[in-house]
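Closing statement on the adenosine-3'-5'-diphosphate sub-project.
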Amino acid sequence: SHDAEVSWGDELQQLVQTFPKDKSWAGNNLYFYQGFWCPSLVLKSFISFQNHFQAFDSDVIVATFPKSGTTWLKALTFSTLYRNKITKDDNPLFSFGPHELVRIPTVSLSAYVGFRNPMDMFISLWHFTDKLREEKLDSVSLDQAFDKFCNGVCEFGPFFDHVLGYWKASQENPNKILFLKYEALKEDMNSHLKKLAMFLGVPFTEEEEKEGVVEEIAKVCSFKSLKELEVNKKGLHISGIPHTDFFRKAKVGDWSNYLTPAMVERMEKLVQERLDISGFTF
Ligand code: A3P
């Protein structure tokens, strides 16, 4: 009923007041909820999703930290799952952005997860949020943003907790959670696509492999191909962000053009303290 909704709203309002609060360098209000900095804009949907979402066995969730290759993984998943329904001339990727085809939150039980070198991920997020910052806000230096990132304060941070949480879950439940790394995908697309198809329960047949289906999916979903599509040059993401903002450089090691040696040292130490010590390998 309407009353119930209002009282749920009030209750939530009161609850939210008890959460630690901060601001991301993009200017978003963040609340620390269940170990993560959640943007205030999505907090209500987030809690509602946790309370009401019921998964089906056939569901698939793409769970990535922002700027770790979500767009790419969505395109690959969609193309792999529906390859028998897609024709060369009539590919939904030509008319819809990957974020439209695989919605947030896309519902699912099996998950696969995108991880990316934190330094490249940070630089990608820095550029992305810089574009989105409201003009009236004071500008934030790369130094300040980096400091916040290292302290875990960014949308859905801390980065290391996110990565470790999913990595551990994928170790415990390899059939339900596939852990993928951006750089590894770039290095060997074909074997990762086969792994992905196997995980999704739709392995490529020998015939498909001979016909070059794997290579074709990799090609259609490549950075160059997606970036050049009219729909991705013009369209808007569900949040109103232009699709084009999701395609920047897609380079491995772009961080070296921005981070100082002191910053690199700080990040390497964090990786050592947070990931290496936990036995994290990929
Ligand atoms: P850069 O900013 O380093 O270029 P997300 O999709 O999670 O928002 O991540 C965006 C990052 O993935 C951006 O990185 C973007 O350029 C890159 N990207 C987008 N599409 C890609 C694709 N098809 N292949 C590889 N990288 C891609």
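The chain is about 50% helix and 10% strand. With this model delivered, the sub-project is considered complete and its resources will be redirected to Aim 3.
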